[in-house]
Amino acid sequence: MPVLFARIKAMFFLFFLPFFCSGQPAPPLLRFSIFLEPSNMVHLRWDHDEQEMMTFELQVHTTGWVAFGFSPHGELSGSDIVIGGVFPNGSIYFSVS
């Protein structure tokens, strides 16, 4: 899996939260996908356009938080990380580091 991310030159990302997008246009067709662990609770879909803009959709079955990172070398050090979750009151948060 780290080899896949190591080949991404431009790391632009956009997360789609379909359940918060009512009334919005349909998300673009994402040609590539993979489950990231054996129980199929984390599903990643992605694609790129002619300008090498990357689009990602991460679907995670969780009641807490999730983190997703990109690294040109497959390690945590120096990677770009997005952390998101839902507070007990239902509000959503995202943080990029």
Which features does this protein show?
single chain; 97 residues; mainly beta; three-stranded antiparallel sheet; 1 helix; globular; signal; copper ion binding; DOMON_domain; MOXD2 protein
Can you put this structure into words, describing what you see?
It comes from Zapornia atra (Henderson crake). With about 100 residues, this protein is mainly beta. Helices cover about 5% and strands about 35% of the residues. The protein has one helix spanning about 1-5, and strands at about 30-35, 40-50, 55-60, 65-70, 80-85, 90-95. The strands form two sheets. The chain has a three-stranded antiparallel sheet with strand order 1-2-3, with no helix packed on it. A hairpin with a 5-residue loop joins strand 2 (about 40-50) and strand 3. The longest helix has 5 residues, at about 1-5. The chain is globular, with a radius of gyration of 14 Å. Residues about 1-20 have low confidence and may be disordered.
Q: Would you kindly provide a brief summary of this structure?
A:
It holds the Pfam family DOMON. This protein is mostly beta strands. Helices cover about 5% and strands about 35% of the residues.
The largest sheet has its strands arranged as: 1-2-3
Whole-number radius of gyration? Answer: 14 Å
Find the structural class using helix and strand composition.
mainly beta
**Number of strand elements:** 6
Oligomer classification: single chain
**Overall pLDDT:** 75
Distance between the termini: 21 Å
Roughly what percent helix? Answer: under 10%
Main beta-sheet strand count, sense and barrel state: 3 strands, antiparallel
Low-confidence stretches: 1-21
Shape: globular
Count the helices. How many? 1
SSE pattern, N- to C-terminal: HEEEEEE
Strand content: 35-45%
